[in-house]
Amino acid sequence: MSQQITTLTFFKYPSLQQKLWAFGMMQFAHAPLKKVKGLEFYKLLGSGKKNFDPLPDWGVYGLLQVWDNEASAKDFFAEAKLYKRYVNHSAQQLTFYLKSIKAHGQWSKQNPFESSDLLDENNEMIAVITRATIKLRMLKKFWDYVPISQKDLVDNPSLLFTAGVGERPVTQMATFSLWEDARALKKFAYRSQNHRHAVQQTQALQWYKEEMFTRFQPFKITGQWSGFEIPPSLISNEQ
User: Rounded distance, CA 87 to CA 106, Å?
Assistant: First the structure.
């Protein structure tokens, strides 16, 4: 029985000093992360500007972590010196706790997400991570099309949170989104003309040399973030 969980933490850095520290940690955090007990997979992520702009947002960074179980994640967030450094250098932190429903594709030549055996049938919320490494010769076509493909996400009432992130600017990109329920996600995916056309373009032009699509059940959110209100059902009693 898989007890694996995934966490995705966002950090906000307002000042120049904080931004410089965060940028440096994209290199220097690897060594301590590789020693974290129970951590099976991780990615240090930068972020793009609003509405999936390819230009970096130097004030927001993310940390994706896949854990063998929730206890390991709790130990890290409560005790790890590395995480305390992140908290001390950032103004806001927000962590999504996720159980994998299904994952297709690969991330760095592997699929790190195991389907959870502990899903709650009464929890209708759904989160999605999509990521891709874009072929260099397709970069311009891809980024020219992004504003069109994401048009139906703007002001979508069923979309509770979204962020564009990536391991490297422009070429290795990912999106994270939190939805009210699977019905809202399917409505966007299958009824949105712009999104359907984007999928068709992806299949026709073969933009990506590696891609992954993962659905999760969010079961807890901790921290705070300007402009985002944690849904009551996902508020942790531990906060």
Answer: 30
